[in-house]
Predict the structure of NBD/HSP70 family sugar kinase.
Amino acid sequence: MKRTSRDIRTANRYEVLRQIIAASPTSRQELAAATGLSLATVATLVGELLDLRMITEVGFEDSAGGRPRGLVAVNASGGALIGVDIAETYVHVELFDLALNVLARADEDMRPGESLPEQVVSHVAAAVGSVVAQAGIEGARVLGVGVSVPGQVDRATGVSEYAPNWNWHDVPLLDLLTEHIAYPLYLDNPLRASAVAELWFGAARGRGDAVVVNLGTGVGAGLVLGGGLHRGVSNSAGEWGHTTIVLDGRLCRCGKHGCVEAYVGASGIMLNLRELSPDSTLLHPEDQTATIAALAEGLRTGDPVAVKAIRDTVKYLGAGVADLVNLFNPEVVVLSSWVAAALGEPLVAEVREAVARHALPRPFAATEIVLSPIPTDPVCLGAATFALEGALQSVGQRNAKRTTPARSRTAPPS
Amino acid sequence: MKRTSRDIRTANRYEVLRQIIAASPTSRQELAAATGLSLATVATLVGELLDLRMITEVGFEDSAGGRPRGLVAVNASGGALIGVDIAETYVHVELFDLALNVLARADEDMRPGESLPEQVVSHVAAAVGSVVAQAGIEGARVLGVGVSVPGQVDRATGVSEYAPNWNWHDVPLLDLLTEHIAYPLYLDNPLRASAVAELWFGAARGRGDAVVVNLGTGVGAGLVLGGGLHRGVSNSAGEWGHTTIVLDGRLCRCGKHGCVEAYVGASGIMLNLRELSPDSTLLHPEDQTATIAALAEGLRTGDPVAVKAIRDTVKYLGAGVADLVNLFNPEVVVLSSWVAAALGEPLVAEVREAVARHALPRPFAATEIVLSPIPTDPVCLGAATFALEGALQSVGQRNAKRTTPARSRTAPPS
């Protein structure tokens, strides 16, 4: 979308808080130097964050003879944020303080066949209730709940337009969640949640252009461009999993042929293994998690079938990542989500070699390829960050109340 | 790259001038409404453009009882800009006034085998000399010369890092051009030139996210994201021509297999035709221009071989454009460059149908697919626009002179 002055103010507010979270305590002068914003702009934004109690004054530092400089730090206990990662087989929920430390966790497993929106929503409601109870947080202090749901999401209306694994079409998920959860809700998908987690807290922090490659049951690319999340005109950018890598190739669950996901998603990897060695003991039919775990273990011990199955996968994955390097020319490609976490550095090393073979020399030379450094679930963290961004955006909306009608506190940002 | 405050100021300066060129005469109030910038910011930027003589005051308009509003318009004769399109087989040069009207043109054909940098540079110098002489412009009024050269370009150093058609590696093109051309020079490549032309004057104007697909001898995608050109970290974003569409497929001139360009570049189209009908009279071996012209004529007259050859091409092109739609979720995809111009609307209609088959429904529904509406050579226009942007950027540098050393006037912007 085209950036307006308001977008720029909001982006600057994010940038200042991001910097304070990264380096508390810090001074307005340091923030101006780190963000490239003017001292006057930083002072205004710091004032807003102080008013919100998201940060606090924590004393002064000497400034070599000049006036002592006021220091600010994130006010970790100034509020709580909840991140919800709805995946195909589980719901993870984490509750964070404002420094984005995890205070409480809850998991719900979804049984095969539990695919009705109401079933999924009741798991989410149970897990959210659990983390609030564990943390002993008064409800009033929860600033918001970010919810990541796979597939294509209209965040303005809170509708899950298409979730391939459950064959959902136009499910009004936000409305269903609102019946159980009283906090402000922010809906988006795992591509964007993991990208925003890397942007605020991971390998994309301080980078202008980064691509976060999600390798899970579904695959896709979260895009950080020009220092912010690129959503596209209808919030569906990053559908790398459904770009064509083998024209007329394998059937993908999206109904098309030859998509990247059909070769490098968890099911695609299982199929690569089956084609290589139909009777392999590494293969756990119907259990993606167990199969990927077995392949990871096989990689560690040098099992030749595991090594070959991953190499076969990386033939596709390397070409697909090279496409992203050629198109976006990013500073960093981050491999994220559970398949990447399970296969770890041995996978990354293979991917680097394959990308070197496929990408053009100039963009390849400019790009690092790394595993996500985020130690917890990046999708939960990113979802909670959407809630944080929403709270920061609603500040701007409250300030702007005199000229434009304020929105309902529970509406997601457009 | 990460946006700094200076980048934002420069982008705002572009935006205001773009809007004045689009809708002269106009008032500061209208500019503020059209750009989303504050009236104070617009007033400052208009002041800078007036100082530069790029625009002029042209009277007042009534404002329904309030103070009459000052009107400004582009000062077409306030300077001249030159755009240079170096292609594989020709050099086109156009000289523009500040309203980007073409005042003079010169063409030089390059014979097969003329591939030495010195040969190319002497064609450029001759054509630039010709347009200046034709227009009767005093040298001092030429604000700059933008030069587009195919392949990968380091615009900061003015080096052509790789030009596949001539097998150039690390040619210091800007240094060579400086020996013949005394005006400020700005080097970049046709992908970015045609994208910036669409952004300022074509189908991407006023759009946040647009992809400009260049179909010529080489192919690639110029990226307009968040209302500005996306260059990537080393100015090589947009290499869509070298993304993989058929893993292990046709050999591409880049040395890899299965690239989009190998199927939809002019040579790729000729090969598609040859595979379909080796003895077709449409085929002019060694002459891309004549073959594409014959196919275009065949499309118009319904020649079944021409129709089938284009349909075979669109099988790849549609999948490749769908990949861009899925990844970027743009408002518009613009088909540009000489192959697209020659094949025209019949090609666009086929591409639309094929993209509908390949892309995901949500991003497809949000995307228009159109032919470039720019009636002249978009690459010349875009190259001249780089010179205009350079002149606008050097304003900012002059204003900033007190704190940072001014750069040489002939250095390209970093």
User: Anything to note?
Assistant: Chain A touches chain B through 65 residues (CB under 8 Å).
